[in-house]
Amino acid sequence: MSFKSLGLSEPLLQAIQKKGYETPSPIQAKAIPSVLEGKDVLASAQTGTGKTAGFTLPMLHLLSQGAEQRHRPIRALILTPTRELAAQVFANVKEYSEFLNIRSTVIFGGVNQKPQVNKLRQGVDVLVATPGRLIDLENQGLLSLNKVEIFVLDEADRMLDMGFLRDIERVMKLIPKKRQNLMFSATFSKDIKKLAYSILNNPVQVEATPENTAVEVIKQKVYRVAKGKKTGLIIKLIAEGDWKQVLVFTRTKHGANKLCKKMISSGITAAAIHGNKSQGARTKALAGFKNNSIRVLVATDIAARGLDIPLLPHVINFELPNIAEDYVHRIGRTGRAGAEGEAMSLVSADETLYLKGIEKLIGEKINVEIIEGFEPDPNASTEPIKPGQNRNQGRRRSSNTKSSNNSRNSNSDRNKSRSRNKNSSNRR
């Protein structure tokens, strides 16, 4: 199958050829024809499957077929959860529309709004935006969405995780009822399906990979280790393996900063990226990571979402996520474009339940290894440690108490994690 066989216009085929792409990925082959037919689409696609081109190419084709409009109202709106993803999608739109008479721009928070407003005043056909800045500028009367023909909701699952549901509902009231809707998500949870039913009209459902499964080319491994020995182990693995590009995940911003400092003191160039970092600091860290002047990028889940890092060889979970689906998102950063990748997780006793949840979700047992000198603590509690809880308190609890509280604490941690995401997202 070729891109030409999908029905895309010659200017788009020229742009695709310039980027060096020859054949469409599975999600592109499935989604593009339906979008070109004007249908609503609900697509499940992991990071790195080419999903962005799956909606930008047919969207640009449809927009270029219409009569040119003098004042260029916003005709296509792409809503993304993070600044990084917004910038990445905008870059794709710019590249693919190089040979078309299509104008586009991107808006997001954390930077001066004036340059963004100037672009909007010049007229744009395609707007890529994060929810917070979009609603802010609309409230100021600086943009109008009443001419939107195509609405794209990208990374819908992350949108919900970050607490953007109300913002999405607000945006839906600002755009015309008669429009084409495209919704992309890594997972099809109950909440995602509920949101889809409220937005989409008789959608075509397409999937690039089976729901909630890890990419097959990714080699997964678990290192069982004592919690206090994790830092030493990760430094040993990176240094002795001479790994050049490693994306490391921590649960918290503080944890990311702390681990980053430890690596630097051990002679490993590293940078942390999370919500408290300015857009300039994020951009600088990512650029250094891509050009190999920085070997390790330590990130939180939200900050890493949407990062455009091609052919990333190594992903390490310094701490397992307490929501199993986030594991799939994390390891999906490697093994992209058919290349092999390696995903490793450092698992301490208190993360045992998280590991079981992940294995249940992906439907397989992950290989376990123990490194001499970094053995797990045989006396450590397997109960998840809640913020502020003394570890010794967890050890003193009886096994019966431990068993009865496992489920409750896991749910509590999950709810607190979601709450933190909502409160700290500040429209990233």
Number of helices: 17
Distance between the termini: 38 Å
| Backbone shape | elongated
Give the fraction of residues assigned to helices: 40-55%
Strand content: 5-15%
The Cα radius of gyration reads 22 Å
Number of E-state strands:
14
- In what order do the strands lie side by side in the largest sheet? 3-4-2-5-6-1-7
Count the domains: 2
Name the structural class.
Answer: alpha/beta
Main sheet overview: 7 strands, parallel
- Taking all residues together, what is the mean pLDDT? 83
Descriptive overview:
The protein is an alpha/beta fold and 428 residues long. The chain folds into 2 domains: 4-207, Rossmann fold (3-Layer(aba) Sandwich); 218-386, Rossmann fold, CATH 3.40.50. It is 43% helix and 15% strand. The model is unreliable at 387-428 (pLDDT under 50).
What's this model, at a glance?
The chain has 428 residues and is an alpha/beta fold. It contains 17 helices and 14 strands.
Outline the secondary-structure elements.
Blueprint: H1 10-19, H2 26-36, E1 41-44, H3 51-65, E2 76-79, H4 83-96, E3 104-107, H5 114-121, E4 126-129, H6 131-139, E5 150-153, H7 156-161, H8 165-174, E6 180-185, H9 190-199, E7 204-207, E8 218-224, H10 230-241, E9 246-249, H11 253-265, E10 270-273, H12 279-290, E11 296-299, H13 301-304, E12 314-317, H14 324-331, E13 341-347, H15 352-362, E14 367-369, H16 391-396, H17 399-424
Parallel strand pairs: 1-6, 1-7, 2-4, 2-5, 3-4, 5-6, 8-13, 8-14, 9-11, 9-12, 10-11, 12-13
Helix pairs in contact: 2-3, 3-4, 14-15
